[in-house]
Amino acid sequence: MKKIISAVAVVLALSSTAHAQDFDKGVAAFGTGDYATALQELRPFAEQENPFAEQKNAAAQALLGVMYEFGQGVPQDYTEAVSWYRKAAEQGVDFAQKNLGNMYANGWGVPQDDAEAVSWYRKAAEQGFADAQHNLGFMYENGRGVIQDYTEAVSWYRRAAEQGFADAQTNLGFMYENGQGVLQDYTEAVNWYRKAAEQGLARAQFNLGNMYKNGRGVPQDYAEAVSWYRKAAEQGEAKAQTNLGLMYKNGQGVLQDYAEAVSWYRKAAEQGNAVAQANLGNMYALGRGVIQDNILAHMWFNIGGANGNEIGSENRDIIAEEMTPQDISTAQAMARDCMSSNYQNCGQ
Which of helix, strand or coil describes residue 155? Predict the structure, then answer.
């Protein structure tokens, strides 16, 4: 929302009407979450056709689009959101153009259309709007609505990254790490990951932790890896939770602590992370950090395997050789219950 308000602030600086105070009141109400007042004050501006207030009209239209998209002060209505975004976007409001691109990219209120999404992202990106530049880079990276072009993706990511946009900084780091659209450069990858990580982006923190764990672009440093994994893990990043659990299991960068490893594996496993599920199964199989339990081990191995972890499937079959048919049936039933409850009823 900060980007939306800042964009409107620019409009405020450029236009004036006899009802400026009402418009300002609507914008302020939107910014504080008083959407009923915002709707009351902004709708007249959005609906009027006044050549002396076009910019305010467009800003009001864009904010109405936001309220309809997210159900703020009105019932959520993607079709209505698209209508208001389009009115503002056609008048050149950058964040409305970006949001309209989002609606096309996701098929919300309009038929899904990546090419149309790209068209609107480009309009906003060419105005320097960082969020749109990032999204346009993403479309080029993934070949959505355009021919896949890593070099072009890097170009747009860089424009957004240099404005401090954390998601773009992370994606630009990824391109450097993997040599996509640029020469592979771990040091440069670390540089961009760090910029985003220091802004608190969990995905970047996880990636930076990996660079420290593997000694890519920085000297290998398990303690530093643990530090960044923890920051991401505490924000709920499942991959970071899994890796933090692994560091505790192996005593890398921290004192070895199987119970703590189990705790982090479980957090990730309950989010559906297949590696964590298989790792948790291993802890039950070996009785590390938990009481040894073949049934729970089988259950977690089975779940991990179902979610694509081959080691989980292999370990499920290995431990089954040590179990009775009844125990296997019990473990399988528990796995069904665990998955059907979205990992809320997993037998621990």
Answer: helix
Q: How far is CA 170 from the centre of its chain?
A: 11
pLDDT digits (tens, 9 = 90+) for 89-138: 999 999 999 999 999 999 999 999 999 999 999 999 999 999 999 999 99
DSSP-derived letter for residue 217 is S
With contact defined as beta carbons under 8 Å apart, do 134 and 153 qualify?
A: no
Contact 240, 273 (CB under 8 A): no
Question: 29-46 burial, b for 16+ CB within 10 Å, e for fewer?
Answer: bbbeebbebbbebbbebb
CB atoms closer than 10 angstroms to residue 324: 10
**Residue 50 DSSP label:** -
C-alpha 20/C-alpha 166 separation (Å) is 34
Q: What's the whole-number mean pLDDT along residues 205-229?
A: 98
pLDDT of residue 49: 61
Contact criterion met (CB below 8 Å) for 60 and 42: yes
Per the CB < 8 A criterion, the answer to whether 149 and 140 are in contact is: yes
pLDDT band at residue 68 under the 50/70/90 scheme? very high
Summarised one tens digit per residue, pLDDT across range 227-279 is 999 999 999 999 999 999 999 999 999 999 999 999 999 999 999 999 999 99
Q: What is the pTM of this model?
A: 0.88
The residues, ordered by sequence, that sit 6+ positions from 231 with a Cβ below 8 Å of its Cβ are 197, 200, 202, 205, 240
SS3 77: coil
Give the residue among 284, 265, 267, 285 at the shortest CA–CA distance from 275: 265
Domains of the chain: 1-110 (1.25.40.10), 257-348 (no CATH)
